[in-house]
Amino acid sequence: MDISLMEAYIIETLKENGISLEETERRIAEDQLAEWQEQYKMDFTLLKRLEPQQLRDAFSGKYRIKFVTINGLKNLLRMRFDIQANHYMEVENGLLNLSINKTIEEQIRGMLSSNWTITRAGDEISILVEG
Length: 131
Hints:
4-stranded antiparallel beta sheet; alpha+beta; 6 strands
């Protein structure tokens, strides 16, 4: 399932702050998103565009970002996997020397759009954008 980078940010922000899928579904159904919008400075109405199953899938991490910038990638790695800037080397077209396990690698592969290439060399991966 494809979602926008902003939708991914919103989902990961909610999860990072301990807000459950059930609470999110309730607030969407009752149109009570204004408090979150004020608190987190994001447009939570974007979640209204997602079908209920899409929202559940997104909360469980089953999403692919339609378009990801390098800064977007860095933010998602931090938000979703607690991977900080000191865990990799940034280059013009991506990130190098990221030491992660294969489970996280597969999750990253699953969330990135097709213009990103992930290669493994030993214990480290590189994530590079094409073009």
